[in-house]
TrEMBL record:
Organism of this sequence: Microbacterium koreense
Keyword Transmembrane helix: yes
Keywords, in A-Z order: Membrane, Transmembrane, Transmembrane helix
TM helices/strands, residue ranges: 20-37, 57-77
Name of this protein: LapA family protein
């Protein structure tokens, strides 16, 4: 099966997979943000002898940001560039 070449040299199948990944990332981000901002009640975090209280969306947003940072620091599942 032959792939179509684009004018910039990349084949059409890689362009569609990148667009598919971008769409999936956008949809997951929207769903995560909807979840975060629908939880507006206060939540308490207890760690050892410390106690913090803030809106639940703040905790969810902090965990989401931490996940993005950790995912960018440890790119184990990204394909290696040749």
């Amino acid at each position: 099966m032959a792939t179509q070449q684009r004018s910039d040299g990349a084949d059409a199948s890689s362009a569609s997979s990148v667009n598919g990944r971008a769409i999936a990332a956008i949809l997951i981000s929207i769903a995560a943000l909807m979840f975060v901002f629908s939880n507006v009640g206060p939540a308490t975090l207890r760690f050892l002898f410390l106690q913090f209280t803030m809106p639940a969306w703040g905790w969810f947003l902090a965990v989401l940001i931490a996940g993005v940072v950790i995912g960018s620091l440890f790119p184990w599942f990204r394909p290696r560039k040749k």
